[in-house]
Every structure is written in structure tokens, then in C-alpha cells.
Amino acid sequence: MPDFAKADLQLVPRLLDDMQRQGYAVIEGFLTDEQLQAARDHVNHEVERHEHEYFALQGQAAVKGSIFEQMSISPQVKDLFRQLYQGGVGQPPRSPDIFPALRCLQGLTGKRESYYFHYDAAALTALIPLVTPSEGRYCGDFIFFPNLRNIRTNLYFNILEKAVMQNTLTQKLVTFAVKRGWLKPVTIKIVPGNAYFFWGYRSLHANEPCDPKALRSTVLLHYGEPHSRDNLASRLFLGWNFRRARVSNERTTRKDVG
Predict the structure, then answer these.
(1) pTM (2 decimals)?
(2) Stretch 136-152: mean pLDDT
(3) Residue 212 near residue 108 (C-beta atoms within 8 A)
(4) Which one of 2.60.130.10, 1.25.40.10, 2.20.25.10, 2.60.120.620 gives the CATH number of domain 9-252?
């Protein structure tokens, strides 16, 4: 298993302070050059399978055998996430598992995924860029409103809040306000190989548009869902998100590659 040496527990106090103070924290060079190249090789294979259009692969089974699976089961990485979660939330997580999601913006379908502001189901999120455009106006920069809400004790209030913020009308209104400059999210020009930590459950986040001719690929590591998945309402809401990703993938996947 690869050594993720930058997952250093001594960084926990600094990371927690940065996430509280500015909304995010960074570990520069989280992936070595060799690890970043291995990740890009896997991305290139998937890009061909999905005909250079948008796709999202969610969960360990979807990235089995890749460096993304290795990242999500690494004892070093899991220890780092556990300490960050406990330090930020104040209690142990319900599950020790890290949920990976490989996401690639490209083509016209990728352009439609911009400005999709949402809250994550998991408390802690790490965004690790793999390939990003470096020139032009549309580079898919990460944008977010950090720490807008606290972790909700009531599942149904959380679902209601997400439904209000993530419906089509609200998305259009927020996007319009951001484009006009009425709302000013924090903007991060992400760098491949770095790891950007933020409280995904608490922060409304999205990405800016990406040039359809370019590729923006990231892996997201989600950790610590405050609400149980055993609840029917929770399963239905999560199921909608999975179906949304699956439909996008099925539209673009070639059956004759790999």
C-alpha cells in the first residue's frame, strides 16, 4: 500500500484552526509525484470510457484497485480524518470509513455541473485536484460559502435545509447572484496534488465553469456522516444523489474500452 506521508497527525491543530478561521485548510503536496501520476493514469482510462464527458465514480467499489481506493483505506489517512473529525465535531464518527468520489468535468455535460451549490452528507471533506486547467477564463475554480450552518441534531431539519438550498429555483437564484457579484463566495485556485480540507456538511460549495475542451479532475474524500443511513428519509435523499450520478455516467460510458 502506498505511503501517504503527508497525512501527518502533527498537522491536526493547524488544519483545524485554518478550517475554523478561513473555512479551509491545505496540505501542499499531499500526493507525491508518483502518486499523482498513478491517479492521472486512472483518470485517463476513465476519460476514454466516458467519451470525454462528465462522470462521477462514487464509493470504494467504483474505484476498486486504484490509488483512490488505497487512499480511502490507508491507516495514515484514516487516522488523520478521525482526529480532524473528533477535533471539529467533538465526538467520534459513526463509521471509520472514508467515502471516495472521483469526479471529472469535461465536455458539454461537464459545463452543466458548474454552480451546483450543495451541502455534503459527510461532515469532513477533502478535495484533492488531479488535473486542472491552468489557462483561460474557465478553470473550474472551487467556490464556497464556508461554515454557514452547524451540524444539525435533527435529520429532518437537515433534509429540509438541503431541499431548500439544492432545488432548481434556489440554484438559479444563487448562481445569478454570484455572477452579478451580489454574493461573494470564497474562491480557491486549486493545485493538483494538494489536499484541501473543509467542513462539507456545513459549507455551501460548488465549482465555477470549466472550459468544455479542458479536463478538471478531482477526488473527494468524504468522512463522518452525522446522520444514520438507516433512516428511510436519509436513504431516499442519498439515493437521489446516487441516481443523479449514475444517470450522468450511463449517458457517456463506452462499453468497448477496458
Answers:
(1) 0.89
(2) 91
(3) yes
(4) 2.60.120.620
